[in-house]
Each structure stands twice: as C-alpha cells, then as structure tokens.
Amino acid sequence: MGFWKKYSYQIVRLFVIQIGIAIFSLVLSFAVSTAFRDRGVAALFFVSVLSTLFYLFILYSVAWEIGGKDRLKLDAVHEAPRGGVGFLLALLAAVPNLLFDLLMLIGGILYRGGSTAVGSGFIAVGFTPSFFIQSTYQGIVSRLLSAFSLVEPTAETAGSASYYLVAALLFIAVAVPAIVVTGFAYWMGMNEKRIIPQRRPGNDAR
Q1: Distances (CA, A) of 135 to 52, 86, 103, 151
Q2: Is 131 exposed, middle or buried (CB count within 10 Å of its CB: 0-12, 13-18, 19+)?
Q3: Residues 74, 189: contact at Cβ < 8 Å?
Q4: 191, 81 in Cβ contact below 8 A?
Q5: What does pTM read for this prediction?
Q6: Cβ–Cβ contacts within 10 Å for residue 167, how many?
Q7: Is the distance from CB of 165 to CB of 108 less than 8 angstroms?
Q8: Among 22, 25, 9, 98, which Cα is nearest to 62's?
Q9: Which of 18 and 202 is assigned the larger pLDDT?
C-alpha cells in the first residue's frame, strides 16, 4: 500500500500518457487512411510505428524524470537506490490494457476451442477497450495479423478461429517495449546517466 500511495500519481500519469498517445494515433490514422485509401494497411502500419516511437520517447523522458527526482529524495535520507521501481510503475500502469487483453485471450482460447458463444462474451468485453487503449499499436498488430493470414470473424464471414487469440497475444507482446523502456529510463534517471551525455560548461573545445 505504501508503494501505491507514493507512486499513484506517477502510475496514473503513465496511463494517461498512453491514452493520450492512443487518441493521437487514432486521429492520425483516420487522417492518413482517408488521404491514402489505396494503401490503407501500409499507411496505418507506418502511422503506428511513428506513434509507437513517439510514445516510447515520451515514456523515456517522463520515467527519467521520475528516477532523477527519486534519486534526490533517496540521497537526502541516505537510502540505497532501487532501480527496479520503473519496471513496476510501467507494469501497474499497463494493468487496465493487460486485463482487457487477458479477457480477449480467454475468449480467443474458448472461441478457438469451439465454445463460440461463451468465447464471444469474453471477446465482447475485452476486444473494443483493448483496441482503443492500445490504438498506438493497432497498425502494427493489424499488419501482423494480415501476415499470418488471419481474418476477423464477422456476421457475414466466418473469419479465422484463431484471430482473437493471436490478436490478444500480439497486444500483450507489443506492451513489453513500453515496460522495458520505462524501467530502463527510470534506472538511467536514478543513476543520473544519459544516452547522450550533456556537455558541461567549460568543456567546450577551444
């Protein structure tokens, strides 16, 4: 409970950033798909990759800041740094989308196993929220599903029985980079390290 009380603002902040980038990605995807109707899947994939890179950049900046502030607090009370905090923050911030992914995964397993009615119930609860929260990755996931020749089942077509199962696994997989980047950036901030070292005043080449 102490961890949640201490870091609840930062956890919510990371989740809000995810939602903000998801909305940004949706708007950008709509604009691009409208402008390039003949290259829909490729255009959405391109937008998704750019949105994901932008999202990871923001996560890195925010997590580095959190780690840097924690280092100052720990130095003040002479406590040892805890580098794993960033990974836990990212994992907790990802709990909502992972829960929806899990529901979709359970539904996908049941659907794949022939229990279409029960499976569809789980999928109905998890699919739409999962796609919205993780809209940043939608183009990437859609491209991979197409590469696996998986078609979403609809009222008109049977589609692929494994579609929702694979989609859930892909959404879980694409969440890993955000967790890794956040954890790494927190560690970097905690240890006052930068990928590109800042030039100190007085060290300029003469």
Answers
A1: 10, 23, 17, 19
A2: buried
A3: no
A4: yes
A5: 0.84
A6: 26
A7: yes
A8: 9
A9: 18
The first and second tokens of residue 35, run together, are 């402008």
Q: What are phi and psi of 109, to 5 degrees?
A: -65, -45
CA distances to 68, 146, 171 from 85, rounded to whole Å, are 12, 37, 23
- How far is it, in rounded angstroms, from Cα 196 to Cα 136? 27
Contact 7, 85 (CB under 8 A): yes
Q: How many other C-beta atoms can be found within 10 angstroms of the C-beta atom of residue 144?
A: 17
At 51-99, the pLDDT tens digits run: 999 999 999 999 999 998 888 887 776 666 677 889 999 999 999 999 9
Cβ count near 23 (within 10 Å): 13
What letter represents residue 190's amino acid? M
Residue 158: is its pLDDT beyond 70? no
What percent of the chain stands above pLDDT 70? Answer: 86
